[in-house]
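Two quick folds needed for the group meeting slides. Do the first one here.
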Amino acid sequence: MTTTTVTLPDELHASLKRVAEAEHRSANATIIVAVEQYVRARDKRAAVGAIAAEVAERHRELLDRLAQ
């Protein structure tokens, strides 16, 4: 496990504490959940982008004809 220090604006820190309390988690656990969700979403977008690029390349001729 790695320790990372994050400096949050006061307003965001207060919001984080409220969310953590409402979800019966620590602020640390809430940050971990948020980062996991963010990273997972970015990975999904990258995978979809790669698939779209592959499909576009594979069907370039057809797409060019359709664009005319």
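Then this one, please, same format:
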Amino acid sequence: MSIAIAILTALGAPIFVALLAGASLALLLFPGPPLIALHQTIFGGLDAYALLSVPFFVFAGELMAISGIANRLIGLVRALFGRVPGSLGLAALGGSTLIGTICGSSAAAVAAVGRNIHPQLIDNGYGKQRAAGIITSSGAIDIVIPPSIAMILYGASAEQSIPKLFIAGIVPGLVIALLMAGYISTSAAIARIPRQARFQAQAAFVAFRQAFWALTMPVFVLVGIYAGLFSPTEAGGFACAYALFLGFVVYRTITFPAMLEAAVRSAMMTSRIMMVVAAAGVISWILTVEGIPQALIQATADAGLSPLGFLLIVNLLLLAIGCVLDPTSAILVLSPLLVPIAISLGIDPIHFGVVMTVNLAIGMFTPPFGLNIFVAQSVLGARTADIYRGVLPFVAVQICALAFITLIPGLSLWLVDSMS
């Protein structure tokens, strides 16, 4: 089954096709579960209440992209850090981080920020490689900062609390953003990139007023979840309604045809995600029936592997897998295998979920096949070689952040413990 999946993926087959083909082959060639279990498990894998939040947050991200929210968020960051070295790069990073608190889609952040600020980065001396690297890598924070679609899928597949996962992602996401900000500012100062206008309270106030309604959106969503006012699924519905309110009433930047186009794109994106969810559910079911997770737990115990040693191996494995698989596929396929081992070693499953997500976030922009690289190539019109060279320093920066997050579980669990 694994060989069939690897070969089909290498040949360029859609990941859900590769997963279903491998599962079908396993059911045909080996005695055990009847073949009729295939379609039963496909639909059974989609029967999870938590998955209802995915289309809502995807649609909210699409509405954000067409409503001009990204422009206002970037403008606010520029007004606050205009005189800091690398302020324009910090604006791209800050814009991506703030967008992550709204939609949780890395590709959406790369597209939204790239269209708005890439030409300005080039004009202000950042160069093609540095500009492409900042935009491509900054978007990866969006699958760590809540609300995160990747964490929703981890929570559904590993049977963990999605609100706790959201809380656990806040500090690690900020750690990544701070380390990246430090590198952007330091490298810009060394390269003598021209600084922007001085900080002016009036300009900052105007930018804040323009971005105020956009900033309140993640506040309402996250506070509503943590206060118990609504579930993550209901929060996704609220995010869509609030984005429509901003686009139609406050900013008046959304038209009805544009909303319909956004709905169609959201439906297509949700369909792709759910096809992978369904196919991965079959793989997980076969592995469980065959006792693979239990065998791996026993093998880990026999090998005397420590929790830290296991996390190191997982980090290396996920960094490699993240280069060739999108986070959705990797989380859904690997969580049923890795989470039981982590729990058997005494590793908190919430912390482990954050570690998995950060690893796969790095894979989003790691050459050669990181998804953000292809999005940036399309949106920015940049050469692949320039993007590769531009992202390499940020791969190193985020691996440093991953080391902190892995070695210090309190970064993930401090807020969770304080709010429980």
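Slide caption for protein two: The chain is about 80% helix and 0% strand.
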